[in-house]
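User: Hi! I have a protein structure encoded as tokens and I'd like to know what sequence might fold into it. I'm fairly new to this, so please keep things simple.
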């Protein structure tokens, strides 16, 4: 394993797999029991709760520019995260999001991004049930 994380390790493929295998899986010991667990290396995981299997996912999205022909970071994030649930063979019911916003970011752009997320939620029929928001100083993000 390299001494510091490289962009290559976040781009999928063998470098990312090495990062996950050598750092994540070796350090996170509680990886789940029944269901789809961290060690399965799937886009989503699941837990067994009585007679039900509950599928969960977490995703992160970055794109530059934030607004592009046909979409924006909001639509990309919502669709990508909900898709990770769909590929597990179940209907996505809910979304949780995390917003990391740079101080000085235009409120109108954030409103547009959130509106795009809502359009995707409407199309899928899922609800946005939870979120975390952090505002970081200019130049920190």
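Assistant: Happy to help. Inverse folding works backwards from shape to sequence: for each of the 141 positions I chose a residue that suits the local structure. Here it is:
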């Amino acid at each position: 394993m390299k001494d510091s994380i490289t962009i290559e390790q976040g781009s999928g493929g063998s470098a990312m797999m090495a990062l996950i295998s050598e750092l994540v899986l070796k350090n996170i010991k509680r990886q789940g029991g029944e269901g789809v667990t961290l060690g399965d290396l799937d886009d989503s995981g699941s837990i067994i709760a009585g007679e039900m299997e509950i599928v969960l996912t977490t995703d992160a999205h970055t794109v530059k520019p934030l607004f592009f022909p046909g979409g924006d970071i909001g639509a990309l994030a919502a669709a990508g995260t909900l898709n990770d649930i769909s590929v597990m063979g179940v209907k996505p019911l809910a979304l949780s999001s995390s917003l990391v916003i740079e101080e000085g970011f235009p409120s109108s752009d954030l409103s547009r991004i959130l509106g795009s997320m809502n359009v995707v939620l409407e199309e899928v029929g899922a609800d946005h049930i939870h979120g975390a928001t952090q505002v970081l100083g200019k130049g920190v993000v």
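A useful reference point when you look it over: The chain has a mean pLDDT of 95. Feel free to ask if any position seems puzzling.
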